[in-house]
What does this fold into?
Amino acid sequence: MRPLVLLLHGAGGDETSLLPLARRLPAHVHRVLLRAPRRMARGGHYWYPVRFGQHDTEVNLQQVQAARRRLLAFLGELEQGCRFDPRQLYLVGFSQGGALASTLALSSPGRVRGLALLASRLLSHLEPTPELAPALATLQVFMGHGRQDEVLRLVHAERAAAALRAAGAPVSWRLYEAGHELALPMVEDAAAWLCRQLPLPPGSPQAQP
It folds into this structure.
C-alpha cells in the first residue's frame, strides 16, 4: 500500500490552490486535493466559520469539531477506496486548512505521520499539552510562514511551533519574505520536506532490507 498526502486549502480557495505542491510529490504517493464543503458568497470555499476580532480570530468549537468529523469520515472512505498505508498519512494545509489538519493530528495522536502547516496556526483551544509528548514524538512537522503576513500574524505561528516542540513534536521551521500566500519558496520547501519524510517506492534499491 502507498502513502497518502491529503492537501487542504485555505478559506476562500479551492482544491487547486495546493496543486503546485502536489505536482512536486513522487509518483508512487496518493495525492488527494480536497475541496471544503462550505461555499463563500464572494467565491471559494471554507471549512468552518471564522469571525475576525480586534486582536484574534474567533471560531466555534462545535463547528471545528464537525469539520474534523467530516474529514475523519472522508479518510475512512479513502482507506476503503484507494487502500493507502494508514501508517503513512501526511496532512498539508494552508491557512484554515492547516488549522483543521492540526486538529486531526492532535486529537488522534499516532494516526498522522507528518503535518505541514503553511501560513497557518493551531487553534488556541486545541494546543497540545506535555502529556501528549510520547504520541507526538513520532509526528514530523513542517511550518512555513511569511514575515509580512497580515492575515494570520507571525506571532500565532511562532506560538504554535513552540507549543508543538514543548509537546515533543519535531518541528522544521521556515520564514519567508511573503504575505499570506503560498509563495513559491514555501511550496518548494514543503514539497522537499515531504519527500524526505515519505518512504521510498517499493522495488527501489534503497528500499531493500
